[in-house]
Amino acid sequence: MQTVRKEVRGLNKQDLNIIDQRAKSEGTSTNELLRIVITDYAKRIREEAASNVLHRQLPRRFNHG
Q1: Is-contact 34 24, C-beta < 8 A?
Q2: pLDDT tens across 26-47, in order?
Q3: How far apart (Å, rounded) are the C-alpha atoms in residues 36 and 50?
Q4: What are the φ and ψ backbone dihedral angles of 45, each rounded to 5 degrees?
Q5: Exposed/middle/buried for residue 10 (C-beta within 10 Å: 0-12, 13-18, 19+)
Q6: What sign results for the dihedral spanned by CA atoms 53, 54, 57, 58?
Q7: Fewest C-beta atoms under 10 Å: which of 1, 14, 37, 42?
Q8: Is the entire prediction scored with pTM above 0.85?
Q9: Could you tell me what percent of the chain has a pLDDT over 90?
């Protein structure tokens, strides 16, 4: 896996502390927890985009059938 760095501005320090605490309680690193959350969110965005394409195509398929 390649290393990617991104600066996040405006993040509340208390929010980051909560994430740090959760990572520790789950026995993982903050980095790993953030990676999981970001990857999951990106997956949801891709699925939503694919769903929107499918919804646009469905009426055309049923009308021509």
Answers
A1: no
A2: 999 999 999 999 999 999 999 9
A3: 21
A4: -65, -45
A5: exposed
A6: negative
A7: 1
A8: no
A9: 65
